Amino acid sequence: MSKALVVLSGGQDSTTCLFWALEKYDSVSALTFNYNQRHKIELESATKIAKLAGVPHRIVDMGPIFGGVSPLTNYDHEVEEYTDAESLPGGLENTFVPGRNILFLTVAGSQAYVDGADSIILGVSEEDFGGYPDCREDFIRKMEAALASGLDKPIKIETPLVHLNKKQTVELAQSLLGCMEALAFSHTCYNGAVPPCGTCHACLLRARGFAQAAVPDPLVERLKNETAA
Amino acid sequence: MSKALVVLSGGQDSTTCLFWALEKYDSVSALTFNYNQRHKIELESATKIAKLAGVPHRIVDMGPIFGGVSPLTNYDHEVEEYTDAESLPGGLENTFVPGRNILFLTVAGSQAYVDGADSIILGVSEEDFGGYPDCREDFIRKMEAALASGLDKPIKIETPLVHLNKKQTVELAQSLLGCMEALAFSHTCYNGAVPPCGTCHACLLRARGFAQAAVPDPLVERLKNETAA
């Protein structure tokens, strides 16, 4: 029986990965990291989405490990604002937390080892990585090798979105049973705003993907309907 | 200017590594992990030893990440007792925390990146690893590659003890200025006992190393003198 552990942030990419895993694996569970995120709404989104997917869900409290290194974990810094997706700068964003995915994969690897899972699913994308080196496939393959050696057990790291852009990720989500419904509860905005701020890096990338796929964002639709009701 | 970050547990091996680094690097700092250790004496030892070495010292609180996985982090389990070092079983001890060194190296890598350190020093030994896969050189080299890729910066992982047995580690310590004096405050016993219990895996390995090197253990000598005083 194949068993997958999905790293679920509650965002668009990890939500899509969760429903992708449900179609591919016999058994799926989800793992969310609480690492002094700026926004508790991310944890609430992850919890709601895991419930919609009907999978066991664990939230691991990372304590203060990454406190203060990035504006995502430190209230003293401001998130950068952009006017449109085309104006996004190259290179590293200031939301870079050195080694965040290294840490997530390490803890997920330990959890997968204990749970007897054979695969970890991570929603990274080289297209949208904003300069994050730990979102690249080169890193994923090296981390997979390090985990297999350090745990003395081969655990596969699957990254179904690694070569997809946001448009293709939206199209993948459309093909996965229940995924669009769950995306209505996903969270993306770096500013933690509901409705999304529309001007941060994450909001712009998400909006562009749905626009290019010519699909309404289920989150935007849900909020519009709730406001109208 | 060369800069090293030493992972300091407060035990014999990491203490020896700290004094090794002081002779090899222009700048040295120490990092200790608080991961629900059974014994706060480990943190106290690390603090005392960093002070003796005159290096900046940071304790990172790992939160509940590894709680419950090993008897080292869980009070419900008993530490195994042995009568002598020869009777130690092969394979994995029950003190195995899956991925502990993977996690330590991940956080140390992030810290080294932020600090501008070019090397991480870790006191693992293949000779005494008790079956821990994440103490082997194969893992260290793979983790080094994963960190370099994920951080997009080459950070070396130095393991000066990896091919030494405990006798050789004692001999190395004797050659390092101030190291034996610091070892008088190091801590090894899995049971957190002062004086050391003498029957756990760690105590037996330590005692055998000093005996084979025909050197009195400075910790034992210090405790003897304090009792006599």
Which structural traits does this protein have?
homodimer, alpha/beta, Rossmann fold, 5-stranded parallel sheet, 8 helices, globular
Short note summarizing the structure:
Chain A contains eight helices and five strands.
Describe this structure in words.
Two copies of one chain form a homodimer. The first copy, chain A, is an alpha/beta fold. Chain A has a single domain, classed as HUPs (Rossmann fold). Helix content of chain A is 41%, strand content 10%. Chain A has eight helices and five strands. Chain A is globular and about 55 Å long. Residues 68-80 and 88-95 of chain A have low confidence and may be disordered. At the A-B interface, α3 and α4 of A face α3 and α4 of B.
List the helices and strands and how they pair.
The structure is a homodimer of 229-residue chains.
Chain A lengths: L2 E5 L4 H13 L2 E8 L6 H13 L3 E5 L38 H16 L3 E3 L15 H15 L4 E3 L7 H9 L4 H5 L17 H12 L5 H11 L1
Parallel strand pairs in A: 1-2, 1-4, 2-3, 4-5
Helix pairs in contact in A: 1-2, 1-5, 5-7
